[in-house]
Amino acid sequence: MAPQFEPMKNDLILRTARGEKVERPPMWVMRQAGRYLPEYHEAKGNNDFFECCRSPEIASTLTLQPIERYEGLIDAAIIFSDILVIPQAMGMEVIMVDKKGPHFPDPLQSPDDKQYNEIMEREVDVKESLDYVYKAITLTRQKLKGRVPLIGFCGAPWTLLSYMVEGGGSKMFIQAKTWVFKYPEESKVLLQKIAEFCVEYLALQIEAGAQMIQVFDSWAGELSPSSFRTFSLPYLTYIADNLPKRLQELGLERVPMTAFAKGAWYALDYLCDSNYDVISLDWLHDPAEAYKIARAKGKTVQGNADPGVLYGGREAITAVVKEMVAGFGGGRQGWIANLGHGITPFVNPDDLRFYFEEIHKYTSS
Ligand SMILES: Cc1c2[nH]c(c1CCC(=O)O)Cc1[nH]c(c(CCC(=O)O)c1C)Cc1[nH]c(c(CCC(=O)O)c1C)Cc1[nH]c(c(C)c1CCC(=O)O)C2
Is any ligand 1 atom within 6 A of the Cβ of residue 231? Predict the structure, then answer.
């Protein structure tokens, strides 16, 4: 039985994602629970990053921090977790190195590798292996008491494959490129395996209480348009095509789905032809041009200021907000206000408040 929760007091983001006309655009930002917030460091204490993800109590506390700080301005929570919990569940070790980011001590080497074959053969129990995420989602929904909807998420197959073979962040993507260009067939089998995992994982997040989901393809922009069509798009669309079917089997209602293919500006058209409801835009997109393309296909867009603008002070923030409001049709339909990528460390939380307030000011009559 799916858990029951209090009725929603604010469902603005869900209505906007479904394409309805709204009174103002909903607002949230990627990575809103993170290192720029002093209360994040306090609540995290000496706990390791993945320990925080695995503790429903800590994860729900961190998820709620921006909701409490920006009460009345922020319209969605996103569960505190990471895209790399899928490789972990598949049997890979991932550690978070302070000030450096994620590190896989033993990345996949080649398709002849013992580890690759073990991963391909292993049947992981998606429910049991990520039970801590579903528990964190249910607890967070209870603590939210209907204040704002809760977003669930996963990494996209291409981005996860890249991490699994690179062993961490990368500038040159030597291993990821070696895999897709030297071993395209073995790469596709792995991408498909990850895509199937994503469908089940997202369905179980929704069963636990997630009301909307986002798929993060953070490294989409490393691929050429034709490589994107071969190694990323089919797996993104597989998720959007199969998640609703899986929800139906589980007796659950479809929820809005967002795709974020960072850097793949050329892919806007293809994504607008997919079953995603919302296309998240980075700052390579001109708001007016992207809005025109997306609205012609009935899609909602999300984004898209350069997070770096938040280092630039109030005038810079006002200017980018005005450009977005004008480009995204005034904010009464088809726009979820966000940044073009996650908020970065050392941003002054009051500058994010000002960003939200300016969007509110220029979109409310
Ligand atoms: C690529 C990626 C990862 N994780 C994620 C992505 C996709 C989004 C993106 O492109 O930024 C997704 C993610 N990671 C985190 C969230 C939490 C929810 C939120 O507030 O948005 C989400 C949605 C927490 C986090 N994930 C991480 C932190 C910082 C951990 C810390 O040092 O305390 C947080 C709050 C660590 C992390 N996790 C990852 C990296 C590269 C890093 C290190 C670099 C960085 O911090 O920006 C992998």
Answer: no
Q: What is the pLDDT along the chain (365 residues), one digit of tens a residue?
A: 789 999 999 999 999 999 999 999 999 999 999 999 999 999 999 999 999 999 999 999 999 999 999 999 999 999 999 999 999 999 999 999 998 999 999 999 999 999 999 999 999 999 999 999 999 999 999 999 999 999 999 999 999 999 999 999 988 999 999 999 999 999 999 999 999 999 999 999 999 999 999 999 999 999 999 999 999 999 999 999 999 999 999 999 999 999 999 999 999 999 999 999 999 999 999 999 999 999 999 999 999 999 999 999 999 999 999 999 999 999 999 999 999 999 999 999 999 999 999 999 999 97
d(CA 171, CA 344): 18
49 lines ligand 1 (CB under 6 A): yes
Closest residue by Cα to atom 20, ligand 1, is 31
Which residues, in sequence order, are CB contacts of 2 under 8 Å at separation 6+?
Answer: 207, 208, 209, 252
32 CB within 6 A, ligand 1: yes
Q: Is 35 in the pocket of ligand 1 (CB under 6 A)?
A: yes
ipTM of the complex: 0.92
CB 216 near ligand 1, within 6 Å:
yes
* Residue having the nearest C-alpha atom to atom 37 of ligand 1: 101
Domain boundaries, the chain: 13-363
pTM of this prediction? 0.97
Q: What angle do CA 244, 248, 249 make, to 5 degrees?
A: 120
CATH of the domain spanning 13-363: 3.20.20.210
Q: How far is CA 218 from the centre of its chain?
A: 9
Q: Whose CA is nearest to atom 40 of ligand 1?
A: 101
What residue type is 360 in one-letter code?
Answer: H
